[in-house]
């Protein structure tokens, strides 16, 4: 997005097994100026200024539905999971909730407005923008 990247990182559990797989999404904004990649072409999990998990982007209803499936880390797939139902639910979360909100982040000002409701992360983003002396339009 020019001055920033939108980052979606899939994090699996170190305790995954053949019987159970758990994962979550780490989602947020990384300022291009602060990327560890000196060529400024790739943002990673470690560059995210507003590090939130998927629940922050889901409706209360979608959060509840996900919790009913028993994912302690985020999402859970077991040998008894109906894969088609899982894919359908995950698609709703990703496309109708997460990506729909992230698609609204066109400028740094949009990012500040969106993330200010998450106190620590909104403040962290503002601080990093100020440190980089970026213009907020």
Low-confidence stretches: none
Number of domains: 1
Query: How would a textbook summarize the main sheet?
Result: 4 strands, antiparallel
**Mean pLDDT, rounded to whole units?**
93
Task: Name the helicity range.
Answer: 25-40%
SS-based structural class?
alpha+beta
Which percent range describes the beta-strand content?
15-25%
Work out the helix count.
4
Distance, first to last CA: 14 Å
Tertiary shape: elongated
Keywords:
four-stranded antiparallel beta sheet; 4 helices; alpha+beta; 4 strands; 20% strand; 36% helix; 137 residues
Walkthrough of the structure:
The chain has 137 residues and is of the alpha+beta class. The chain has one domain (4-131). It is built from four helices and four strands, in the order E-E-E-H-E-H-H-H. The chain has helices at 60-68, 83-102, 108-115, 119-131, and strands at residues 4-12, 20-31, 52-53, 75-78. Strands 1, 2, 3 and 4 form a four-stranded antiparallel sheet that branches. Helix 3 (108-115) runs antiparallel to helix 4 (119-131). The longest helix is centred in the C-terminal third of the chain and has 20 residues, at 83-102. It is elongated. The protein starts with a strand and ends in a 6-residue tail after the last helix. The mean pLDDT is 93.
